[in-house]
Specification:
Molybdenum Cofactor Biosythetic Enzyme, Chain A; alpha+beta; 28% strand; 3 domains; 323 residues; Molybdopterin biosynthesis moea protein, domain 2; elongated; six-stranded mixed β-sheet; 11 helices; Aldehyde Oxidoreductase, domain 3
Length: 323
């Protein structure tokens, strides 16, 4: 591209959008990239503060910002993501369904480390609604070296960096533990909280059991719910380290493989996750009942995508885990 006086630009091809901003009225492109400048455009361009203007001249070693943005879109856009039209050098990606947003953060960091590249996303592994904008991307200058964009593509590899994984349908079994509830001495205030959180994802409690504090009863109920076809089991209460809190032992003795008992998240440190034949079994501490946001809100959406979580997934939660 080359810079020339506006008065000398008639017949030249504009190589970038020119934005018009009128406070409270409009903000958008008055002239678009590729526009052939006419004599009647000159006064308008001068009103926009453009005494000099950049017009296109062929340079095989460079890419225009719009073309570079398309390359960034191609390396980023994975499953269940829609892309906007390029506008003033920028493209946005949005969710085309409810689900969890995943991004390969290590590769994205490496791509952003290439000079003049800008890709911004929402937080990794968070639930998003359909049509939510989850990423925006552009290059910083109006034109960029092709070599840089080639390097970006090499870093990204063949798999897209981003995707939305939709939620699956689960049959949910709930086990409420506590002798005070089992004997009817107090009302069960935990179940309504679980019901409310499940409804967010279109789920219900399909079967429910109430257990006293004995490990054997809770363990038997876990087996019963598994045999009845439940695809997720949630146990509430009895999750602390007190001697009469036996839910963790019941989950362990059910034959499930424990991923973690305890996590660097507050509230929710006493959370447990286990799997039996890939069926998730969660033990929820009492804070889930009375705190608006806990570890359950971080983990439930990911479990509902079918992701099988590991110990390392939990150790990474410490940064940002103070809820």
């Amino acid at each position: 591209m080359k810079e020339i006086r506006v008065e000398d630009a008639v017949g030249q091809i504009l190589c970038h959008d020119i934005t018009e901003i009128v406070r409270g009225v409009t903000k958008g492109a008055k002239f678009r990239k590729g526009h052939i400048i006419q004599a009647e455009d000159i006064p308008e361009l001068l009103k926009l503060g453009k005494e000099n203007i950049f017009v296109w001249e062929n340079d095989e070693s460079k890419l225009h910002e719009n073309d570079a943005a398309e390359i960034l879109k191609n390396i980023c856009q994975g499953e269940n993501l829609n892309s906007s039209e390029v506008k003033e050098g920028k493209i946005e990606l949005s969710a085309n369904c409810d689900g969890v947003f995943y991004v390969d953060s290590e590769k994205l960091n490496s791509v952003n480390d290439v000079e003049e590249i800008c890709i911004a996303t929402v937080q990794n592994q968070i639930p998003v609604r359909k049509n939510k904008i989850v990423a925006g991307m552009r290059v910083i200058p109006l034109v960029i070296d092709k070599d840089k964009m080639n390097r970006v593509q090499e870093i990204a590899g063949s798999e897209p960096l981003m995707k939305i994984v939709p939620y699956k349908k689960f049959k949910v079994g709930l086990i409420v533990t506590g002798s005070e509830i089992f004997h009817g001495r107090i009302n069960d205030t935990f179940t309504p909280v679980i019901e409310s959180k499940l409804r967010t994802y279109g789920l219900n409690i399909d079967e429910k059991r109430v257990s006293n504090d004995s490990k054997e009863m809770t363990q038997n109920f876990i087996a019963e719910l598994l045999n009845s076809g439940m695809e997720m089991i949630i146990c509430t209460g009895g999750m602390s380290v007190d001697p009469d809190d036996r839910t963790p032992a019941a989950i362990r003795d059910s034959g499930a493989d424990v991923v973690t008992y305890g996590a660097p998240v507050l509230p929710g440190a006493m959370f447990m996750l286990a799997y039996k034949n890939q069926i998730p079994i969660m033990g929820l501490p009492g804070c889930v009942m009375y705190c608006s946001k806990t570890i359950f809100d971080l983990i439930l959406p990911r479990v509902l995508t079918g992701e099988i979580l590991t110990r390392q997934d939990f150790t990474k939660l410490g940064v940002g885990g103070l809820l």
